[in-house]
Design a protein that fits this description.
41% helix, mainly alpha, 6 helices
């Protein structure tokens, strides 16, 4: 509770839980939903400026990373089992013959991003990726399983390396 100095808020991305709107596979609508929650938290008198941290898991980690690039005043971000270069991830998912789950994720991305008619694929991928040049400027904790079959742990390592090169604590 806020009386103890903490407030936790869980966000269902569009199309999940009881949220409205179509799913967009970590795209602009998902990012806007999280930005809206952060903006509304900032209006609360029991939330201190600069004390909001963002945590995301899987697709939510990707959304959290993108929002961390876009919103000033976030204290830090925790990214758990995310993808940070969706182009590389999508190509791997699409061609992985050993795991049907990855092909299902590739199909979900194609459908939810409306890839066939939503514009150039490179733009669709870029608006959902922070690599190769992350613009995150806040302390970042990246948690990734070394043997995660769905997400490439090398992307997590690359993200941390890129942030450290820029002087960001990661």
């Amino acid at each position: 509770t806020s009386s103890l100095g903490y407030i936790a808020m869980a966000v269902s991305l569009p199309g999940y839980g009881k949220s409205s709107g179509p799913r967009d596979f970590s795209g602009p609508d998902s990012q806007q939903a999280v930005r809206d929650v952060i903006r509304n938290l900032g209006k609360r008198t029991d939330v201190a400026d600069g004390k909001v941290a963002l945590v995301g898991v899987s697709r939510g980690a990707n959304v959290a990373a993108k929002v961390a690039e876009q919103v000033a005043g976030i204290a830090g971000v925790v990214l758990v089992s995310g993808f940070y270069d969706l182009g590389e991830t999508y190509r791997r998912w699409k061609t992985d013959l050993e795991m049907p789950e990855t092909r299902a994720l590739a199909r979900a991305f194609e459908e939810e991003s409306e890839m066939s008619h939503a514009g150039p694929v490179d733009i669709i991928l870029r608006e959902r990726s922070v690599l190769p040049d992350p613009q995150i400027r806040i302390p970042t904790l990246v948690l990734q399983g070394a043997r995660d079959p769905l997400m490439n742990p090398l992307q997590a390592e690359e993200l941390v390396g890129q942030l450290n090169k820029k002087g960001i604590e990661a």
